[in-house]
């Protein structure tokens, strides 16, 4: 079994809000991330696939094809978007990093033919904007 990881970066904005919470509870739980005007992050995405090497091609998956799938299914729809308002998965779900990883998995898993999705890792890339607003 061989594991391959492709890395990409994207930027998006969001806010955390649960409509079943009171305004006070939303502020207490989510703090400044509850601002309805949102705030932005730079994210790093790592997608790991696994599979057996095809002896004829030498590939588990053609990394160029994996890159194209990643762009089409994830980056084109999430990069430079306000997640809560522009990405269907987050119209009714809080766009936490955890939920972002789940949504990306759900977008990618059915699109892979030869390799099996093994891991989706999403983390905020440290930058001045995030540091300025105290985001970790």
Description:
The protein is α+β, with helices and mostly antiparallel strands and 136 residues long. It has a single domain, classed as 6-pyruvoyl tetrahydropterin synthase/QueD (Tetrahydropterin Synthase, Chain A), CATH 3.30.479. The protein is 33% helix and 27% strand. It has helices at residues 23-30, 63-78, 83-86, 97-108, 128-132; strands spanning 2-14, 39-51, 81-82, 116-124. The longest helix has 16 residues, at 63-78. The relative contact order is 0.23.
Distance between the ends: 35 Å
The computed structural class is: alpha+beta
Taken from the alpha-carbon principal axes, the silhouette is elongated
* CATH top level label: Alpha Beta
Query: The biggest beta sheet, please?
Result: 4 strands, mixed
- Low-confidence runs: 127-136
Total number of helical segments? Answer: 5
- CATH architecture classification: 2-Layer Sandwich
Q: Roughly what percent helix?
A: 25-40%
- Helix/strand order: EHEHEHHEH
CATH superfamily caption: 6-pyruvoyl tetrahydropterin synthase/QueD
- How much of the sequence lies in strands comes to 25-35%
Could you please say which CATH topology applies here?
Tetrahydropterin Synthase, Chain A
Task: Give a count of the beta strands, DSSP E runs of length 2 or more.
Answer: 4
